Amino acid sequence: MTDPEGPYGTLLDTRLKVLTWNLWWRFGPWEARRPAIAATLARLDADVICLQEVWDTDADGCFAAELAEGLGFHHAYGSHLDLDGVRFGNAVLSRWPITGRDVLTLPAPDHQQESRTCVRADIDGPRGGLQVFSTHLNWRFDQSETRQHQVRAIARFVSAARSQADRAMPPILCGDFNADPDSDEMRMLTGKAATPVPKLVFHDAWDVAGEASSSSTTGATWTNANPYARLDLEPDRRIDYVLVGWPKAGGAGHVTRCTVECAEPVDDVVPSDHLGVLAELRY
Fold first, then answer.
1. For position 1, what pLDDT does the model report?
2. Best exposed site among 1, 115, 151, 160 by fewest CB in 10 Å?
């Protein structure tokens, strides 16, 4: 007789809110955008926040640390690109303590080297450990092959990290992948093409539970509705993702809701050129 509860047993009612967002480094009116970013993060009230294009300077410190302090959060930051004392990197902010961290430099040919990274944070959550990864891949449309190499490196990084923490949840991989869902690099991660690491497959939160919101009805995170993005003369695209591994007991990690956020101006200032993705997971 089939178990009426299904293979995962009784499903968890509690939730984890995860946000990913590219902050557009110190481009455009970055000083005015700075408080708008902080206010948006406070309003969305996610438990775990993955950020890309975060600056860290010799002069006034790390923006990830500043944002974490404002929220009363912990943070992990990583960068491999330093431009005259101003670094460009990724971060994870967490409501709960971060007990371990690591930074992977992503591969790229010398002529395409953008010093991209993937940051890992081991989080001591209230219902068990989490491993969260924040990344950002090469941006050019013609560099899918490089992004595929980067995805392979990230998959190995995620797989190797299993021994670093007792994960109550499947791995959570977030970021700006600069790739559409039907690209080869994203298909590798979601099991629609050969996976880089056997049995390591991610569910795309928008595909599982995407809902139209005031920010986006299609899931696009790079959109010409954004005044900064519009200047680049590119088509609307869905290139920012919350990806979650196969659910565990109780459905831990199962995506129950996903929306696109971060479009609303704060004091007439649009916070970034990207929109963010907010997902709710069973936890």
1. 44
2. 1
CB burial of residue 154 (10 Å; 0-12, 13-18, 19+): buried
Distance, CA of 23 to CA of 91 (rounded, Å): 11
Residue in the structure block whose two tokens are 């992977």: 104
Position 238 pLDDT exceeds 80: yes
Residues in the chain: 283
Residues 207 and 181: beta-carbon distance below 8 Å? yes
List the one residue out of 64, 41, 49, 37 whose CA is nearest residue 228: 37
Whole-angstrom CA distances from 197 to 105, 160, 261, 270 are: 18, 10, 31, 39
Q: Is the pLDDT of residue 42 over 80?
A: yes
The pair of three-digit structure tokens given for residue 90, joined into one six-digit string: 């990724």
User: How far apart are the C-alpha atoms of 186 and 179, rounded to whole Å?
Assistant: 7
pLDDT > 90 in the chain, percent: 92
Quick check: helix, strand or coil at residue 3?
Answer: coil
Q: CA dist 183 to 136, 143, 203, 206, 214, Å? A: 16, 11, 15, 16, 26
β-pairing, 98-105 vs 86-94, is: unpaired
Instruction: Please write the tens of the pLDDT for every residue from 139-173.
Output: 999 999 999 999 999 999 999 998 776 788 999 99
Cα–Cα dist 22/240, whole Å: 8
Residue 182, amino acid = D
d(CA 176, CA 241): 7
Q: How many beta carbons lie within 10 A of that of residue 16, not counting itself?
A: 25
